[in-house]
What does this fold into?
Amino acid sequence: MKALAASLGNPQESFRCIHVAGTNGKGSVCSMIAAGLAGNGLKVGLYTSPHLLDFRERIKIVDGDSFSMIPESDVLNFLDSADLEGRSFFEVTTAMAFWWFAVSKVDYAVIEVGLGGLLDSTNIVSPKLSVITSIGLDHCAILGATRSLIAAQKAGIFKPGVPALVWGHDPETDPVFVKLASETGSRLYFADDWPTPQSAISDIEGPCSLVNSRTVNAVFDILGLQCNRDSLSRAGRVTGFHGRWELVHTAPDVICDIGHNPPALKLVFSKLEALGRPLVIVYGVMADKDLDGISSLLPSSAEYVLVSPDTTRALPAARLALRLSELRPDLHTTCSDSVADGVQAALRAAESLENPLVFIGGSTFVVSEALLYLKNNCAV
It folds into this structure.
């Protein structure tokens, strides 16, 4: 990655940046920071993943009260002009983002880590602040089987003399962060030392909205940056942020969320149950996910429509149904041939319920295909 960046003139050195890692919440935090900065007249690059409907969602500039995605012509120009032989998809995408931000002369860039931290393609930046939003068990085959091992990978974004902010105190991960911050000479902050706001400070909703709000408040305080609270309150619209506890249809209400690991799904399903409404859940997972850990979190009162998105990584719906029948025989499930068919079936099932809520989730791929179906066939 360093060699690729050098071949492009090290574009990542031309702007100030904030580097954000974490198991969950990092995309929301990145978008909130970008909106708060842009509302004060700064031109802000925003690099996040994954995308849902358009690859260019990953690479945006937030300027004032609106955002723009990298133009298709610039994507093609970069691919034609850069030496990308043997590079991975994420390496190419990261280099493209850095290049476009430099060409566009952004004042700041908010950079989301793709996976882990230490060996991530984004970890060639020299940030003003390193942020870790949360630590949970996900991608364990790559990052390690314990939260302390995962914390060590994510703390790999700590840089010499650069302050570091992590979400909260935790007896399992605190020693890791303290040790690595000491080794890099990074002043270490914990966002849960900041006061809890009375309500979420952004329109990016979800079970972690207050946690994310405290983290964002800490970011601006630590860096001594001014935050435009009005822009921050509309961060989802200002940055074009989608797929996190997002209302995508009404009559009936349909919410989607791309949370896919046990820590995220525990919060999502708890919030769904707390609403006390009849639930129809369109659900699909990738074959490598911890279904044993996830199955215990599934609300027993919901009707489930099991689906398999169009990717070889997905667990086929029939196999998902079989596994759930073994793990959770109390659940009522049906299978659909595709995500689009599953969304149709869920909407039909909701017609017979009073004040129902349809939830779509389990995988980014499920949400992406569902959004495409709803966009083309249903009005919000």
The mean pLDDT is 94. The first helix runs from residue 2 to 7. The chain is about 40% helix and 15% strand. The first strand starts at residue 16 and ends at 21.
